[in-house]
Amino acid sequence: xxxxxxxxxxxxxxxxxxxxxxxxxxxxxxxxxxxxxxxxxxxxxxxxxxxxxxxxxxxxxxxxxxxxxxxxxxxxxxxxxxxxxxxxxxxxxxxxxxxxxxxxxxxxxxxxxxxxx
Length: 117
What we know:
3 helices, mainly alpha, Helicase, Ruva Protein, domain 3
């Protein structure tokens, strides 16, 4: 009779622990692959499995936030590169000529010296 009760207890314990751990393991694998649709079951439990599930939920939320920030950072440099070009287009058209003027005046100065020599 003791063996039957012990077997029943072992079966109940393994079912109440192994099943949720297998579910959490599956969710961990999906989250590791950045599948943020994975359901994290067991966060309402008050035992160690509930603690693990809550930690996994935090991991999921942090991963989602990090991916969102990464996405924003990848689009931000494109906008920054476009802004300076846009500003240059709005600037005075003489701006580019003014930058090349010193080399033109230097060239003219050399020609004048050569002619006078």
